Amino acid sequence: MGIADRRLQYETAGLDIDDLDPNPVTQLNLWYHQAEEAGAAEPNAMVVSTIGENGFPDARVVLARDISENGITFFTNRESAKGAQIAANPKASATFAWLQLHRSVRVRGSISLATDAVSDAYFASRPRASQIGAWASPQSEAIGNREQLNDLVEEYSEKFDGIDVPRPPHWGGYVLSIDSIEFWQGRPSRLHDRFLYTRHNNVWRAVRLAP
Ligand SMILES: Cc1cc2nc3c(=O)[nH]c(=O)nc-3n(C[C@H](O)[C@H](O)[C@H](O)COP(=O)(O)O)c2cc1C
User: Fold this and answer.
1) What is the pTM of this model?
2) Which of 6, 176, 196, 198 counts the most CB atoms within 10 A of its CB?
C-alpha cells in the first residue's frame, strides 16, 4: 500500500471532559498505565523537543522515569546536544504517542535539573553496563568508529573494576514542568477529541480544541 493511501479509522469511544481527571497529572499517569496494559512498546517513551542555538527545533526520544506534580523526569548526558540546548533555553515540550490506543499527549513547560539525590538514586538503579556506558559515551559528539567507543567502555570497566560505578558529573536528570498539557484521542473521520489544560493560579482549566 502506498504511504499516501494508509488510512486507519480511529474507532474509539471518544472523550468528554467528564472522562478526564480534573488533575491532568493524574490523567497522564492513568493513560500511561493504560498504554502499558495495552502492551505498548516502551509506553514511557516520549519525544522531547528543545530549541537549538540556531533557533531550529530539535527533538529526540527519551524515556520518562517519573510523572508527578513536579513534572516529568528523564535522564541523560547533560553535555549532549540536548543538554547544551536546555542550558541555553530551558523551554521544551514532550510528546507521548500511544498509537494502539489512538492517543497522544503533549506537554509544554520549562526544564530544570533534577536534584543530585534523584539523579544518584536513579543512576544507582541502572544496570552496571549502562552505568559504564554513561561514562564511556561522549553523547552527541562525532566519534571515529565503533572501536573507539568499545575502547572507552573497556577503559572505564577497568577503572571501576571491583567498585560501585559513581554517577558521572555530566550525567543526571531533567524535570520538565507541566505548564500546559493536551490529551488527544483519535475519533472516526478525523473528528478527534482534544482537551488542553492550562494552569491559572495553581488551578487547572481545560478547554476543548478543534481537531
Ligand atoms: C526508545 C528510546 C529511548 C531513549 N531513551 C533515552 C533516554 O532516556 N536518555 C537519553 O539520553 N537518550 C535516550 N534515547 C536516545 C535519544 O533519542 C538520543 O539519541 C540521545 O539522547 C542524543 O540526543 P541529543 O543528541 O539530542 O542530545 C532513547 C532513544 C530511543 C529510541
Assistant:
1) 0.96
2) 176
d(CA 27, CA 29): 5
Domain coordinates in residue numbering, the chain: 7-117+172-209
Query: Cβ(47) to ligand 1 under 6 A?
Result: no
Residue whose entry in the numeric block shows the C-alpha cell 520549562: 110
Taking the C-alpha atoms of residue 101 and residue 14, their distance in angstroms, rounded to an integer, is 11
Closest ligand 1 atom, CA of 82? 27
C-alpha cell at 4: 499516501
Query: 7-117+172-209 belongs to which CATH class?
Result: mainly beta
Active site residue 65: no
pLDDT tens digits for range 27-53: 999 999 999 999 999 999 999 999 998
